[in-house]
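Mods, move this if it's the wrong board.
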Amino acid sequence: MKKTAILFISALALFLPAVVYGAAGSSSGLILIQPVCARAVAMGDAFSAVSDDINAVYYNPAGLLLYNRKEFSASYLKGVLDFSYYSAGFYSSFNNSYALGGNLSAFSAGEAEINNVDGTSRNVTAMEDSVYTATLAKNLGGDFSAGANIKYINSAVAGEFKNEAYPLDIGLLYRKDNIDKRIGIGLCIQNLGGSLKTSAADDEGEKLPQVTRAGFSYTSRDEAKIVTFSADALQLQEDPGLKIHMGLEYALGGRLSLRAGYKAGYDLASLTAGFGVEVNGANIDIAATMMGVLGYTYNVSISFKL
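Not the wrong board. Structure tokens:
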């Protein structure tokens, strides 16, 4: 790789963390902290204590253990510049005892033109990651559940240097259900272990972005509506500041849901909003995130309960 390419990738590595998650930090394994589920994104990513659908895999795998059902979901994110993110997953729960799930995610930072010293040029994918996730959730008895994600990440820089890692997520969830309300408390540690090299000369590599989430949720419901408030506190290992996420969901009659969220402690991505509709058994969710001078990012998700 020529000097032009090296300079480009170096600049990209500095810029990407702010674009993806609104904060400074390592550029290694950005796909692991990229918000994707439109419902959760619209609620400010305050989801570790909500986690009541298939997208719990991104926030707290213990939440997959909810109902005796199967569910499929697919999501797409259109980021700023040429950044894009895709994911698809499936899970099945068994007699409220345990649940199994699988997920595939892919992230691309778009194309970059590489100029060689001989005057020729070529286009390469600036950065691309893919993650394969296997999830297990188990009922611990009473109102407690636990879950774990085992992940395989494959990362490529400028279409040339490739690397892989095997991080782990561990989550716990307490959920107390009554007829007219639900209280949830969640804790999840994400991306334990592993590192990714960013070049052939990088002997040790960069640690994956380890995240600790602690959350609370409260849901009030009656025949006409369901209202959920949620809050998460996040600690990124490479960032000393505590991040606070808050979200609100107002569901009307099970067909339409309105959502909003706020994230404190970030340079970008502080305000979120979105909605969800149910059409012929399919749940369609859309979210938008304000990115300051960079504009907006948009998430779209569709899920089916089987």
